[in-house]
Amino acid sequence: MLTVAVLISGTGSNLRALLDAAADPDYRAEVVVVGADREADGFAHAEEYGIPSFMVPWAQFASREEWGAELSAQLAVWRPDLVVLSGLMRLLPASLVDEWSPRIINTHPAYLPEFPGAHGVRDALAAGVRQSGASVIIVDNGVDSGPILAQERVPVLPGDDQHTLHDRIKPVERRLLIDVVRRIASGELDLQAASASAVAPSTVAEGDVSASPAS
Questions:
Q1: CA-CA-CA-CA torsion for 155, 110, 17, 3, nearest 10 degrees?
Q2: What element of type H or E holds 126?
Q3: What is the Cα–Cα distance from 164 to 169, expressed in whole angstroms?
Q4: Does 108 participate in catalysis according to the annotation?
Q5: Which residue segments constitute the domains of the chain, with CATH numbers given?
Q6: This model's pTM is above 0.70
Q7: Partners of 148 in the beta sheet?
């Protein structure tokens, strides 16, 4: 059984989807702890499922490195096989990433390497593309630059705003995340191999439909 720690900052919608999936006995992954950098509504999902939780408040530490050291220490108590970032709104310090890599994964609301960073949905709309997407990646020390484990296109529709587009991307993110964790748990996906064989992605390819203006 793959043991999973999930880190959140907010409502934990991906956490909820993962907990629901893990309730199936055939899903060979188990969430063993939920952590956050602040009081988070998503703790309610952990409580409902009887999952232990912890908080490492960002504001109580003098630096990102000190916060990361305590976060890593809390994770180490549970010795998870995998760490899933589920809306954690903090960049992890390099020391933590190096300690846990490649066993840290994250979702992103864009078809990476397009539109990395905190505003992927907004940036896709501003660029006038006809397609965006969702991705699941291994976390590295860049900004959404780690090896891509899964991704899927999501169309940008006429009249879309950040809310409507993000609402269509979120279910795809959850489905991809659940499937990636399932594949890791079954041995179908080897994170070490995926990390070692990763090739740095290029920018949007010439002629990519996603780079065409929205109509």
A1: 150
A2: helix 120-127
A3: 9
A4: yes
A5: 1-100 (3.40.50.170), 107-198 (3.40.50.170)
A6: yes
A7: 137
Cis bond upstream, residue 102 (ω within 30): yes
Contact between 38 and 9 (Cβ < 8 Å): yes
Tokens of 4: 């999973």
Model pLDDT, residue 197: 82
For 124-178, how does the pLDDT look when each residue is reduced to its tens digit (9 = 90+)?
Answer: 999 999 999 999 999 999 999 999 999 999 999 999 999 999 999 999 999 999 9
Catalytic residue among 45, 108, 119, 166: 108
Instruction: Record the tokens describing residue 134, joined without a space.
Output: 């969702």
Strand, helix or coil for residue 4: strand
Q: Which amino acid is at 127?
A: A
Q: Write the DSSP string, 35-54.
A: EESS--TTHHHHHHTT--EE
Residues 159 and 157: their CA atoms lie apart, in Å, by 6
